Amino acid sequence: MSALTFRFSRSRRWLTAGLLLLIVHGLAAQGRAHSDAPSTATHEVTDEVGRTVRIPLKPQRIVSLAPSLTETVYALNDDSHLVGDTQYCDYPPEAQQKPKVGGVTDPNLEAIAALHPDLVLVTKGANRLDTVRALDSLGVPSYATDPHTVDEIISSTQKLSEILSVPSAGKTLAEDLRSRLAQLQSTLAGAQPKRVLFIVWMDPLISVSQKTFIADAIRLAGATSIIESWQEWPQISLEEVVHLQPEFLVFANSHTGEGKHDFDVLADRPGWRNLDAVRNRRYAVVSDAINRPSPRIVSVIEDLARKLHPELFPSVPEPDKQPPAALSGPPNSADKPLSGQLSDPSACLENACAR
Question: 298 is in which domain, residue-wise?
């Protein structure tokens, strides 16, 4: 387990360790009883964080602990084997009808055990090491993903299809996603990349570095982030943004329908009015799928490219001029998982893009 370095809050680790121990002991008997059932064929695989795990050849009862993984299972048409997911798994809409096992960072182990899963899907960027350890203690195997680029998201999807014993679906999906990206790159060939600021959080102002899959998605859409930082989710000053003068501001739409949708709200804020992008109303609002490392991110890349380079897509109308709900405050937790459930932006950003 030492090879697995999931992010988790040190301050919460010791507070929850005792509770986890009690829960695990209480559920261990249930897990052992379940393991006495006729066993299915298993094999050893290496997950994306380097762990060797033994899992069923054909998983029949899957629990997903991240929205991105739930989306991927549906994209692979294997949702009939998905027996549970988290309260933040909201896409596709059918995923909301699955039994819920709590949150991403704080799943309910008893609820998971009650579903008798033969495989739990986790992701390094969002789930906690304590959760994986507790699953191990229950004898429930987990498989971890860890993509950092768009190409790795596609590769991870194909690997997951093999884990779930639906390799043909994964191969077809991966080929389609790569074909669409190749076609888009052909369309964008020769176009000058737009310099953009992707806004994760307004107050304090937080963006993404070049090391995130979001920045990679932005690059594939014919743009480049103006932020260069060793941190994945750097907090930046508005003065620095004014000095860099991005051509576009890019937001993820929370789809909540809440907050003010008047771009003048941003234009009236001190400092923001000094940005050419604000004065000229150059911004792009894309689906919040850009925050999730799942196959749907390719659709977001295509949409963003059309909004940043409308001249290359004459049949597509100009981007609408409705600003995102993010202008008036943090997003709703039901639509933007993790960030909505934590009051401290710096804490929520630990998991902002691995949902």
Answer: 190-351
